Amino acid sequence: MSLILSSTVPPKTNYDVFLSFRGIDTRKNFTSHLYAALKQKHITTFMDDAGLERGEEISWSLLKAIEESKIACTDLSAIDSHINKLLSLLSIGSKDVRFIGIWGMGGIGKTTIAEVLLSRISDQFDNFCFESNVREKSEKDGLVQLRKCLFSKLLQNENLSMDMYHVIPTFILDMLRRKKVFIVLDDVNDSDQLEALAGNHDWFGPGSRVIVTSRDKEVLNDVDEIYEVKGLKYSNALQLLSMKAFKKKHPPKDFVELSERAVNYANGVPLALKVLGSHLCKRRIEEWENVLDKLKQTPDSKIQKVLQISYDTLEPSEKDIFLDIACFFEGQRKDWVANILNGCGLAASMGINRLMDKCLVVVIENNLEMHDLIREMGQDIARRMGSRLWNATRIYDTLITETMKETVEGIFLDISKIGKVHLHPAIFSRVPNLRLLKFYRSCPRAKDTNTDSIFEFGQTKELQFLPNKISLFHWEDYPYKSLPSNFFMKNVVELNMKGSKVKQLWNGNKCPQRLKYLDLSECEYLETLPDLSWAPNLERIRLSNCKTLSQIPLSIQCLHNLFVLDLRGCEKLRSLPRLAQLGSLTILYLKGCSNLQMLVDVPRGLKILLLGECGLEEWFQENGLVCNLETIDLRNCKNLRSLPSSDCLNSIQELSLEGCSSLSKFPENIGNNITRLDLSYTMIEDLSSTISRLSSLYQLHMQGCKRLKSLSSSICQLKSLTILNLSDCSKLGKLPDLHGLCSLRELRLDGTALVEIPSDIVCLSSFKVLYLNDCNKLKGLPELPSQLQVLEVKNCMLLKTAVSTSCILPIKPEPCGFKFDFMNCFNLDQNARGNIMGDAELRIKELAIWSRNNVRRSQDIITHLLRFDLTLSGSEIPEWFSFQSQGSSLNADMLLPSWFISTFLDFAFCIVVEYETPTINSEEYYDFDLMVTCKCCFKTTNGYREYDITHIRSHHGPLFESDYVYLWFNHRTTRNLSIWLLQNCYRVNEASFEFKAEKFASRKEVNVKMKVKSCGVHLVCDEDESRIQATSSYFLGGQVMESDSMSDYEEDEPKHMKLKLFPAFC
Hints:
Blueprint (H helix, E strand, L loop, with lengths): L1 E3 L10 E5 L4 H17 L4 E2 L16 H5 L1 E7 L1 H14 L7 E6 L6 H12 L5 E5 L2 H8 L1 H13 L14 H8 L3 E5 L5 H7 L11 E6 L10 E4 L5 H13 L9 H11 L3 H11 L4 H13 L3 H12 L3 H14 L4 H9 L5 H10 L4 E3 L2 E3 L2 H14 L2 E2 L2 H10 L8 E5 L6 E2 L13 E5 L14 E2 L15 E4 L18 E3 L20 E3 L20 E3 L21 E3 L20 E3 L8 E3 L7 E3 L7 E3 L10 E3 L20 E3 L19 E3 L20 E3 L21 E3 L20 E3 L20 E3 L8 E2 L8 E3 L8 E2 L14 E6 L7 H24 L6 H4 L3 E7 L9 E4 L2 E4 L4 H6 L1 E13 L9 E15 L2 E15 L5 E8 H14 L3 E15 L6 E13 L3 H13 L19 E5 L5
Parallel strand pairs: 2-3, 2-4, 5-8, 5-9, 6-7, 7-8, 12-13, 13-15, 14-16, 15-17, 17-18, 18-19, 19-20, 20-21, 21-22, 22-24, 23-25, 24-26, 26-27, 27-28, 28-29, 29-30, 30-31, 31-32, 32-34, 33-35, 34-36, 36-37
Antiparallel strand pairs: 1-4, 10-11, 37-43, 38-45, 39-44, 40-43, 40-45, 41-42, 41-44, 42-46
Helix pairs in contact: 5-6, 9-10, 9-11, 10-11, 10-12, 13-17, 14-16, 14-17, 19-23
């Protein structure tokens, strides 16, 4: 059952509860007992004895009864989860006294949950009382009178004498202590209220329970447990809205989309759903659209009135923090926002915590978030106050009309949404209370557009005034050369002038003591920085792409709190001051500093150092100056010949030397903590035996090392190595034995000079991915591990032999995909082709059996992995294919129902495609996607059924005027077809399949023609029953594991199957 919630301020009601149900059994058992219990507790309940005997839909004649009921119990499933969790916290059977808090934002359903809880368990107590609207009653009548009312109900005595706040007569407490009571104190907003009404646990008898609902978590500090109420699930929210708007569980077809918009607006808040549903009841579609469009601009006043109660109880500084977050800072980092607001003189950390306690703000992964309705409420308040501006159009109007009001405290303007605007040089003198100023671009400026600022100024080319209350100064494309001389920056926490024309920041009369974040990225006119010792609290400095900046002042050494220094792309920078004494510096970006030739003494605490594309020749590190670097990126430092010989690489975890073309020796002084090492495109000729020390290394990349001829056998001692990339090592002609690489999962050997692969590769139990494309000297493949999933051997013209991967061990069954690509391997002998095709048959069958035996687990998350792709140069469909035909279509008119009933598992498909290219050129590189569509048509005793199945394969590399075989199995695309066949096999007597191959997409211009030369369809069956049973037990005993080795070739496919119904099936 679910709960249909009534409005917060209900109209006059004739009934407390409207009871509805479905089914005779429900009526004569649970429902009748619930009805009796409600009547026993004097809860006026409506139940239609005549009209709903069989659980029919509620008739229109009963809607008035529903509307006049406080609570309508039509289906309590939406609230059951809350009740069950609360019952667990209450532990009714125990003899102790327990206080439980129900906490959540306004309108979220706290009161309703408490009401339902009361109706379910109140009969287990001597007396009970639901004290509603405690906040309002305490303000109106006072706490003494409210306590007297509560105790009178509990003790069933109207003549209690209780006139003093701090004194409760002993005889009253003695009577309470003899009773097991259940109390609900609803909407408590002050701890004094809870203290006055429920005091201590020892006021009440053993087994008593007190429920306290509140929007303020701080009020609940002294309760035993706090239960947080969150928004309704989408399905329950849609049902609640529909009940209010249409008097039934689901919206009419024409109103579904509008109902979804309304549900999205309410975002799970029952109050909003009820108000909206009631307001939209019996309205036309056009009226729905108008109301929902209006809500974008003006929130509903009834909803806002309830939500604003929490705001009204805040202190003035807390209100400022709330409005700032609602208007400007939602989604931003909590610590950053706190720093900015601290600069405004607000105790931000404490204030944010108070907002969290009142359910006005939540923190998710250190980001400040708000419910949509609460944010709208805050923005509506700010809009009425005129204190904060964030609408681009409105700000634009105030700028061009110069009508800025002095009440404005914050301006956030998206300058990408407005046109040119003339700025009066003293425009900001009209807003002396301005604390937060942000002119930003949500859409980056296009590269080919004019870089001139949108701000225009007259003869005075300087800004004359900025308020000194400003804490956040963020002005992208700032059009002036300097800041106003009377702007002392004493409260500025962040100064962001990205892409501005500023040449100089401040001189001696500035004192930015609070400045923590400085961003002058892409300031192309900035030549020097000011004396940074005036800003001792700086934590982040970003100066990327300041093309004319030639030096960093020595005063940077005074910044002991500096955490990030970003100097990327500062092309004129030739040297840096000594940074060793910057104890807090953790991240240093120097990528693209092409004239930086020397780095001296990185600080001890540095973790990340990015030096890619620098002109760095030498890196000196003072002996004994240990640093804790974890990541170093030196990509394309073409002049770098060596790394420092000190201990600064002991802690390194990731080191990239890719493209360091002057580096000819393997770095010997790397610590054994390294996990990823990239030596690609260096001049290294061999690997030192010291590599065996790198026991934690799991990725080694040496792609494009043209001088590398062989690998040391020491590499086989790397027990953790998972990925080894030796692609394009064109002189690499031999590999050592590989058996020691017990964790190796992926090996890339494209473009090497290998003639053979070590035979012990079959012993690698974790091995799954092997790339051997363009190995022009490779003549044969050894036996490969049975768990291999990806094998690419494209363009290996001399490859002659290939042994089946399943010769030694049975294939380990798991939900995974396979890709074998032998394109342009024209020299394969018949044994090799037979092994490849036999392997394909077995793997497809194993995948089909797995899907059949794990049908319940074979959902979309897994079925997309159950696929097999094979590409092979040749012109023959495998002989094991059930049906074959020349051309692009085939008919199967001998389908037997018994095939589908007994052994049918799934379908596999195969085509031979003939390509015609304008010129035969082995150097020509083709890059396109091939899309194959198979139209499956089944003739049955009742008519026809059609399915369209699509398969996409990518082609990268040369293409010859030749034939290519494409064979595939994809359970995701055939699952629905297979299920239909199993259900309708007794009616199928003929089937036809028509294939079409075409270029689907290309990454470069491709002029190529293709046609389907022959085709085949295979009914994947398993005739060997004992084999099925053996395989089944083996499958079901294993764990379901997703393969991550398919990412290199998984393509996004269009909707893979379209169903067409012919008249006979309608």
